[in-house]
Amino acid sequence: MNANRYYSVIKNHQLPQVSIIGAGAIGQLIYQQLSSSKTQVNFIGRTEKSQQQAVTYTNLAQQQTTCTAMIVGRNDWSLQLVNTKLLIVCVKAYQVVAALKPIIKLLNHDCHILLLHNGMGPHLEVNNMLNGQGLSLGTTSQGALKKSTWHTQQTGQGVTQLGHFTGPLMSETIKSSLLSNIPQSQWFEDILPMLWQKLAINVAINPMTAIHDCRNGELAAAQYRNTITAAVTELAQVAAAESIVLDLEGLLTRVYQVIELTAANYSSMHQDVHHQRKTEIESINGFVVQMASRHALRAEINQQLLASITTLEQGYLSNA
Ligand code: KPL
Fold first, then answer.
1. Is 209 left (phi over 0), alpha (psi -120 to 50) or beta?
2. pLDDT per position as a tens digit, 284-303
3. What is the ipTM of this complex?
4. CATH label, 3-188, candidates 3.30.470.20, 3.40.50.720, 3.40.50.11310, 3.30.1330.60
5. Which residues lie below 8 Å from residue 202, measured CB to CB, with a gap of 6+?
6. Ligand 1 pocket by C-beta < 6 Å: which residues?
7. Any idea where the Ketopantoate reductase C-terminal domain is (predicted)?
8. CATH domain 194-317 topology
9. Rounded to the nearest whole angstrom, what is the distance from the C-alpha of residue 154 to the centroid of ligand 1?
C-alpha cells in the first residue's frame, strides 16, 4: 500500500487502536464485534506487507455484511505507527508464544495484551516475555465458523469471560469497549478460576469425543462417566494445589450441562483430529499433567487422555 495513504488510514482518528493477531473464526468474529464500536480495529498480518482486505461476516440472523479491514504488516515501521493500545491474541494456544515473540518488543509499554484461546498454559511463558506491558486473559464460548479465508459466520451465542492477570491494568476505555461490544462478556477480578472451570469442560469433552469419534451429546452415556469424573477430579486437585478452589460437584454438573447443550456438535478437538490437524491437547489435558507434576501429584487419567490424542496426532502428522 502507498505509504502516505497507509499513514492517513491509521492516523485519521483519535480512537483507541486495537490489533488482533489471528484471523481465525474467533479473531474475525471479535473484529466484527469491535469494529462496530468507537474503537479502531485492525489485524496484524503474517507478512511484512500492509494491505487492506475485504472481510465478510454473516450474523446469526443470516445477514451478510462486508467491510474493509486493515491488515498491518509485521514490520517495525507499521507496528510502531499503528500504536496499538490493546493486542488481542486469537491464535491457537500452541501458536501464542511464536506469534508474540517477533512483535512484543515493538509494542509500546502502554500496550495491553489479551490472550483469548482454548486451554491454559501460554500465559506462563508470555508472562516472562513481557516488556512492561500488562496481560489479561480470557475465554469465549461464542460459536463461529470460517466459510472461507475472509468470510466468517457466527454460529452460536456464548459467554466471554475476561480478566486481569499481571502487570499494568487494561485502560478503562478499552475495557468498557470490549464489554459493551462483545455480547454476554464479563470482567472478573480473578480470571484464573474461570479459566480452570472452562478447562474442566474441555479436559472431559474434547479428548473423549476425539477418541470415541462421537458428538458431544454421546458422552452422556454411562460408559464414559468414570473417565469424565476422574479427569475432572484430577483437575480440581491440581487447581487446589495452585490455590484455586473449585467445587467438584459444580464442575461435573456444568460438564454434563455443556454435553447436553452442545449435544449435536463435534468438539473442536474432534474436528482437529477429523481434519488431521494439530490439536490443543497440550494446553488442555497436557496443562493439567504439567501442573500436577509441579506439585508431585498424579493425574493418571489426564495423562492417558493426553497420550491417546498424542498417538492419534502423531499417526497423521508424521504422514503429512
Ligand atoms: O469448547 C468446546 C470445544 O469444542 O472446544 C466445547 C465446550 C467442548 C464445545 O464443543
1. alpha
2. 999 999 999 999 999 999 99
3. 0.97
4. 3.40.50.720
5. 118, 119, 284
6. 118, 201-202, 205-206, 216, 258, 262, 265, 267-268
7. 190-311
8. N-(1-d-carboxylethyl)-l-norvaline Dehydrogenase; domain 2 (1.10.1040)
9. 15
